[in-house]
Specification:
binds adenosine-5'-triphosphate, 14 strands, about 35% helix, serine/threonine-protein kinase, six-stranded mixed beta sheet, binds magnesium ion, two-stranded parallel ribbon, protein serine/threonine kinase activity, about 475 residues, Transferase(Phosphotransferase), domain 1, Phosphorylase Kinase, domain 1, globular, 16 helices, alpha+beta, ATP-binding, membrane, Ser-Thr/Tyr_kinase_cat_dom
Length: about 475
């Protein structure tokens, strides 16, 4: 594989690949492309590392993939070897990634011994606890709340998903990706430490009945934020396909800024002339693109389809798959798709909980966009940059009928006026209580449903088309 001027991280990854797998072809570096300009791109703003004039129309994220190191280490560089990566190797290869390495004891302390009162929730990876870190734990640490995710050793995910999270999120930085602060890699223990997202997941906010209804503009703001996160991944110098875009993986901060979490299934995008990556089909029922389920061919357009499903969830207030509904309405896309491009029938599917408080024009445009994202043929789907450009102006549409509550949303720092800390605290306690009760039942269900194997997803798709 040819690569431009290699960074120390890249050299380390190549060296490791060769030493752990002597059959792997030697990595070739294009040394002639080295220049001071490639080392200090900011000082030579209009000239690329190769000395070519930069095209004005080139998207910013391609020029300098903001927040990524110039040579991001691919997941395959570090994971495709016969010997597992040692904690020392991992920390060496992620030098410069600004990640803290914590001990299990330290993380026990910050979560008060993983106490049930700190329990936030649980997914396929394992339980998540709230904690607090500051300078006392490690000099230089900004005092802040964190979410500590603990790998369940009996669960459906394992070291590979943990490593993917550390390698991708450790190197990718963007306002719409959740920040990975550090990790713990000790004996069989695998933990992840993230910035704490006080409004939890979109799934909880949108579908849990005990929580106040999300207003239309807040839903739109979340869609725009999540779309920006995906755009960043797709346009990075080494593109990333997220592969698990869904409401539970979109986390929300105090201002409802959306951030993508869970990179356990993320994949490096196709390189060179390749049009797709071929993988084992993994994902979540209701969100995965049909061509990916049928062929295992993964492209950025698979993420676009999943985005269309989440946009549909935001419009309808319904889950992608809901087994409690009549059989014809269980799969959201199958039930709602044909209404999306017909403005006269849209009101049949728009979330009744919104009580008509939305911009009609905004909803029509968002519905038409969701329809395009859900196109059967990947080529007919827009790319994520177009999605952002279509959705963002809809935030300015204010033809919204007045309702019983006042809220503002839009620029950073603006928050809903009818939600306070007390409500959040009570809600967290209630969530924690309910989550603990459901934990055992949920665990059993997860192994069968959430992240599923190729055959399961394939079977589900085939049965539907029969
Ligand atoms: N950084 C965070 N800040 C606050 N809450 C979080 C954070 N990360 C995860 N959570 C919460 O922890 C719970 C479990 O999240 P997790 O991502 O492990 O599982 P999931 O997304 O629900 O399921 P899946 O395994 O399908 O991804 C969710 O309720 C989520 O909102
Ligand atoms: Mg998740």
């Amino acid at each position: 594989m040819d690569a431009p001027f290699p960074s120390p991280l890249y050299i380390f990854a190549a060296w490791r690949r060769r030493t752990t797998n002597p059959k792997s072809p030697p990595t070739k570096f294009k040394m002639p492309s080295f220049s001071w300009k490639s080392l200090l791109p900011g000082c030579f703003s209009e000239t690329t590392a190769a000395g070519e004039r930069r095209k004005k129309s080139q998207p910013a994220a391609r020029r300098v993939a903001a927040g990524t190191s110039p040579q991001r280490i691919s997941f395959s560089d570090l994971s495709n070897s016969s010997t597992p990566l040692s904690p020392q190797d991992l920390s060496l290869s992620l030098v410069g990634a600004d990640l803290h390495i914590f001990s299990l004891e330290e993380l026990k302390t910050v979560t008060r011994g993983f106490s049930t009162s700190n329990f936030i929730g649980e997914g396929g990876f394992g339980p998540v606890y709230k904690g607090f870190i500051d300078e006392e734990l490690r000099p230089g640490l900004r005092p802040q709340a964190v979410a500590v995710k603990l790998l369940d050793l009996q669960g459906s995910q394992g070291h590979k998903e943990w490593l993917a999270e550390v390698i991708f999120l450790g190197q990718l930085r963007h306002p719409n990706l959740v920040k990975l602060i550090g990790y713990c890699y000790e004996d069989e223990h695998r933990l992840l430490v993230y910035e704490y997202m006080s409004k939890g997941s979109l799934e909880n906010r949108l579908f849990k009945k005990v929580i106040a209804v999300l207003p239309w503009l807040t839903r739109l703001k979340i869609a725009v934020g999540a779309a920006k996160g995906l755009t960043f991944l797709h346009e990075a110098e080494k593109p990333v396909i997220y592969r698990d875009f869904k409401a539970s993986n979109i986390l929300l901060d105090t201002d409802y800024k959306a951030k993508l979490s869970d990179f356990g299934l993320a994949k490096d995008g196709p390189q060179g002339d390749d049009t797709h990556v071929t993988t084992r089909v993994m994902g979540t029922h209701g969100y995965a693109a049909p061509e990916y389920i049928m062929t295992g061919h993964l492209t950025a357009k698979s993420d676009v389809f999943s985005f269309g499903v989440v946009l549909l969830e935001l419009l309808t207030g319904r889950r992608a798959v809901d087994k409690n509904r009549p059989s014809r309405q269980r799969n959201l896309v199958e039930w709602a798709k044909h209404y999306l491009c017909n403005p006269h029938k849209l009101d049949r599917i728009i979330d009744p909980a919104l009580e008509g408080q939305y911009s009609t024009k905004g909803v029509e445009k968002a519905a038409a966009l969701a329809y395009q994202c859900l196109a059967h043929s990947p080529k007919s789907r827009p790319n994520m940059r177009t999605v952002v450009e279509t959705l963002e102006p809809l935030l300015e549409l204010r033809d919204i009928p007045m309702g019983p509550f006042i809220f503002t949303v839009g620029g950073p720092g603006e928050t809903e006026k009818n939600e306070g800390d007390d409500e959040e605290m009570a809600e967290r306690k209630e969530n924690s209580r309910r989550n603990m009760q459901r934990r055992q039942r949920h665990k059993a269900r997860l192994l069968q449903s959430s992240v599923c194997t190729d055959t399961e997803l394939y079977r589900a798709q085939r049965n539907r088309s029969i």
